[in-house]
């Protein structure tokens, strides 16, 4: 402990002046310059170090601490060790603390020779300890530097042996090149050092590469990339390089160091693989096109031969050829799609569409295949999905079709397939679930790879290209979505894909007038508590509608409508059902004719979707499922005057002929506006009103007629709707008195007229001479109840109408006027259905459905060609 009696006596005075001492210390010019040179702020120095130095000095004087081991000075030296502070600077910094103490002693009036000597004595001893610690710190730093230098040298040797190393200055001049670089490029170190870095670049490299490199380093602190180089002998090489900057003490870039590895073999192999892949894609695409052209011709002529085949054996052989050709065409189409996806030709084309319609239409297309394989197809399309979405409906339908085809292929007879669809926060989720053979875990990771297919010996006929799932996965990814698989061998598989969609502007509800259904008591007949997937699908939909349905095991009549599953009832239970008087709906997995001629039972064939279920329930509740009357209509007459609103000429002639045979007088107009005009000025006993007409449609015309009746107090005028949709909605049932479905049958027309017009008394059939009836017309004449001459006249009008309609339809297709296409296809469908021309009716119905949905991708021109072919074949048969 130092002997400092004078300082100990006045130390309290110094303590009072601590703040002044510290401020005086850092304010001396020399001390301030040292701090400034090393970037140390005075306030920081006082707070972090100077205050602690003073406290240590005071404790030494008071005898509370040993001199020469100031912990705060140790912290200061540790802080300054990377600032390269010199011993002279350290002495100046410490000595000015002594100077501040001495100066303050004069200001406090405690100065004396003894006080000065004691301050100097304590300082000298203290600085001696500081200097010793400083020397030890510098020594340790030197040893650390030596170790790091040695370590860096080892690193350099290791890198030189394994990597290409080069350095350039800030301007891009090479300053270092290791031996590995000289071996690759063929230049010596003497030739490289001092040369611009561009010496090694291939002419294919962009001229501004060095600027881009510097910019990348400036933004991210490093550059990584592949450089194409040219050696001294002009051969090409490639290197993967990492470039980092070397900076000075002021963070300015002085050099760039590049560490690289040669990848010439890898790049060449990649280029060769890409070239081979492009050649393969070109071959596949070209080959597919070349094969598809003659195959379309083959299928077309086989279809014509099928119509002309004379024997059952010939037709069977032609069916096999046609089916095989269709399978081959499907494979080729897969290859084409795959080639387009791989080559980048595929584009996503978003458009407004209705997901409910898209899925339900797709499901119906697969019903024949499902029935042929003896499978049950169910679905749940969430009614809460927005009515209009914007995405690529054609590609979505393609993915669903691929997944359904896959499920059908790998599900044994008796199995079940379910399609589910939901919408959540801007994304749709669609799943195809089957009870098939499942996919082994080892195969699942490859299932979306092209030409990959899980193998199973139990289904030897499940062949194909192995492209369907790969195409589906690529389509989903192109649309911004993802596809997943969950599968268990022997249990089944679930494929789910999700896609981003935009909700469109059309926001009308999917289902209307559900209150009419909710007010009825619905029940599900579950004898012995049997409950299958068809029943489950029904209940799930009804619950989503907010419609209650109870389960019953006893037929007690406590319901307005009874559902039952065909698979859950035995023969005795079926007899009891049919004997019970309530209207019923039979859930069926295929369109069997079990209940075709049974009154009170409406078949509901899987798969279910919202519109189908609503229509069937409404039909069953309305009692429209009774078989069409087949009573003898000969001699039936009515004394009545009717107004007919129908724009289709062929339909006008047909209705006129039928009404004429019934002794009814009539007037025919071509649109709703003309019908409304006639209704105001003329008297009619009944109106037959087509729904879809130009100028004013049937519904608007009827609403206007009802308004006139109410306003003027007129007698109620019966109005019967002529429509292909006999179900009608609630609003339609309010304004129409009845529905007469197309195609029109004489028996149903009579039945409908009898509800509002009494038959003429003493009506007798006119005596007519026997006529020659062509065999192919016999069934049609029987249905329409017309003579052969009348039928020939009607067919003549139909021919003229179709030829005119085809030209109008072609013009609408060429103009891409889908609204007009919809109207014309609907008109063709109606005309054709009246003559039971099923193939034409189905083609027109598909075109109408697609055009109404806004499907711009459909080949309407090709469909028109098919319609013309069907028409020509039909006319040929009827001539």
Automatic annotation (TrEMBL):
The modification Phosphohistidine is found at residue 826. InterPro entries: CheY-like_superfamily (IPR011006), HATPase_C_sf (IPR036890), HATPase_dom (IPR003594), His_kinase_dom (IPR005467), HisK_dim/P_dom (IPR003661), HisK_dim/P_sf (IPR036097), HPT_dom_sf (IPR036641), PAS (IPR000014). The modification 4-aspartylphosphate is found at residue 690. Residues 787-879 form the HPt domain. Residues 151-220 form the PAS domain. Its EC number is 2.7.13.3. Gene3D superfamilies: 1.10.287.130, 3.40.50.2300, Histidine kinase-like ATPase, C-terminal domain (3.30.565.10), HPT domain (1.20.120.160), PAS domain (3.30.450.20). The keyword Kinase applies. Keywords: ATP-binding, Cell inner membrane, Cell membrane, Kinase, Membrane, Nucleotide-binding, Phosphoprotein, Transferase, Transmembrane, Transmembrane helix. Residues 286-503 form the Histidine kinase domain. It is a multi-pass membrane protein. NCBIfam families: sensory_box. This is histidine kinase. It comes from Sulfurimonas diazotrophicus.
């Amino acid at each position: 402990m130092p002997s400092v009696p004078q300082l100990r006596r006045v130390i309290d005075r110094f303590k009072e002046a601590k703040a002044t001492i510290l401020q005086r210390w850092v304010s001396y010019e020399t001390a301030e310059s040292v701090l400034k040179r090393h970037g140390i702020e005075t306030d920081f120095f006082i707070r972090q170090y100077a205050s602690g130095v003073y406290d240590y000095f005071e404790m030494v004087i008071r005898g509370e601490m040993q001199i020469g081991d100031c912990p705060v000075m140790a912290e200061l030296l540790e802080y300054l060790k990377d600032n390269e502070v010199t011993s002279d600077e350290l002495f100046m910094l410490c000595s000015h603390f002594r100077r501040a103490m001495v100066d303050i002693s004069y200001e406090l009036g405690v100065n004396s020779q003894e006080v000065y000597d004691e301050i100097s004595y304590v300082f000298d001893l203290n600085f001696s300890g500081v200097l010793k610690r400083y020397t030890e710190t510098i020594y340790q730093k030197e040893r650390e530097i030596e170790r790091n230098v040695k370590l860096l040298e080892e690193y350099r040797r290791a890198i030189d042996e394994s990597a290409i190393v080069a350095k350039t200055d800030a301007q891009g001049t090479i300053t270092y090149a290791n031996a590995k670089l000289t071996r690759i490029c063929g230049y010596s170190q003497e030739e490289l050092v001092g040369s611009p870095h561009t010496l090694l670049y291939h002419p294919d490299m962009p001229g501004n590469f060095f600027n881009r490199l510097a910019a990348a380093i400036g933004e991210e602190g490093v550059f990584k990339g592949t450089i194409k180089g040219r050696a001294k002998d002009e051969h090409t090489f490639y290197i993967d390089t990492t470039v980092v900057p070397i900076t000075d003490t002021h963070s300015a870039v002085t050099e760039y160091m590049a560490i690289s590895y040669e990848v010439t073999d890898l790049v060449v192999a990649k280029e060769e693989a890409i070239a081979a892949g492009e050649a393969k894609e070109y071959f596949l695409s070209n080959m597919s096109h070349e094969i598809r052209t003659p195959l379309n011709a083959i299928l077309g002529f086989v279809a014509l031969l099928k119509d002309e085949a004379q024997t059952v054996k010939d037709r069977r052989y032609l069916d096999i050829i046609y089916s095989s050709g269709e399978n081959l065409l499907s494979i080729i189409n897969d290859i084409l799609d795959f080639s387009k996806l791989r080559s980048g030709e595929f584009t996503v084309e978003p458009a407004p569409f209705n997901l409910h319609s898209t899925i339900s239409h797709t499901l119906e297309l697969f019903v024949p295949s499902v029935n042929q394989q003896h499978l049950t197809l169910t679905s749940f399309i969430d009614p809460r999905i927005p009515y209009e979405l914007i995405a690529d409906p054609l590609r979505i339908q393609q993915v669903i079709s691929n997944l359904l085809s896959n499920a059908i292929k790998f599900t044994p007879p008796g199995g079940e397939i379910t399609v589910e669809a939901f919408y959540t926060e801007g994304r749709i989720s669609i799943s195809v679930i089957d009870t098939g053979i499942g996919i082994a875990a080892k195969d699942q990771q490859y299932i979306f790879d092209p030409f990959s297919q899980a193998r199973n010996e139990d289904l030897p006929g499940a062949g194909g290209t192995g492209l369907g799932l790969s195409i589906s996965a690529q389509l989903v990814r192109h649309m911004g979505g993802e596809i997943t698989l969950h599968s268990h061998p022997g249990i089944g598989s679930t494929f789910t894909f999700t896609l981003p969609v935009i909700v469109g502007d059309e926001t009308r509800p999917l289902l209307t007038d559900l209150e009419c259904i909710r007010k009825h008591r619905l029940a599900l007949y579950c004898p012995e508590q049997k409950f299958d997937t068809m029943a489950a699908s029904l209940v799930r939909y009804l619950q989503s509608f907010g419609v209650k349905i109870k389960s019953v095991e006893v037929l007690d009549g406590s319901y307005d409508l009874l559902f039952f599953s065909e698979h859950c009832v035995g023969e005795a239970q079926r007899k009891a059902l049919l004997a019970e008087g309530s209207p019923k709906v039979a859930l069926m997995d295929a369109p069997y004719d079990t209940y075709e001629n049974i009154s009170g039972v409406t078949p509901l064939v899987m798969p279910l979707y919202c519109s189908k279920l609503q229509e069937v329930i409404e039909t069953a509740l309305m009692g429209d499922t009774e078989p069409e009357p087949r009573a003898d209509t000969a001699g039936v007459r009515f004394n009545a005057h009717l107004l007919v609103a129908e724009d289709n000429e062929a339909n006008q002639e047909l209705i006129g002929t039928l009404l004429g045979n019934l002794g009814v007088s009539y007037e025919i107009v071509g649109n709703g506006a003309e019908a409304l005009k006639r209704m105001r000025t003329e008297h009619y006993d009944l109106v037959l009103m087509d729904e879809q007409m130009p100028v004013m449609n049937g519904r608007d015309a009827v609403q206007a007629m009802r308004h006139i009746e109410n306003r003027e107090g007129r007698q109620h005028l019966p109005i019967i709707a002529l429509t292909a949709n006999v179900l009608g909605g609630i609003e339609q049932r309010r304004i129409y008195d009845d529905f007469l479905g197309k195609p029109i049958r004489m028996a149903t027309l009579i039945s409908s007229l009898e509800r509002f017009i009494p038959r003429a008394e003493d009506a007798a059939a006119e005596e007519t001479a026997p006529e020659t009836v062509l065999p192919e017309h016999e069934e049609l004449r029987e249905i329409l109840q017309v003579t052969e001459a009348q039928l020939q006249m009607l067919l003549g009008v139909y021919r003229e109408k179709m030829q005119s309609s085809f030209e109008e339809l072609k013009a609408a297709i060429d103009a891409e006027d889908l609204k007009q296409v919809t109207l014309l296809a609907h008109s063709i469908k109606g005309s054709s259905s009246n003559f039971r021309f099923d193939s034409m009716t189905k083609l027109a119905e598909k075109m109408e459905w697609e055009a109404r949905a806004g499907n711009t991708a459909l080949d309407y021109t090709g469909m028109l060609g098919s319609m013309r072919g069907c028409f020509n074949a039909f006319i040929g048969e009827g001539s």
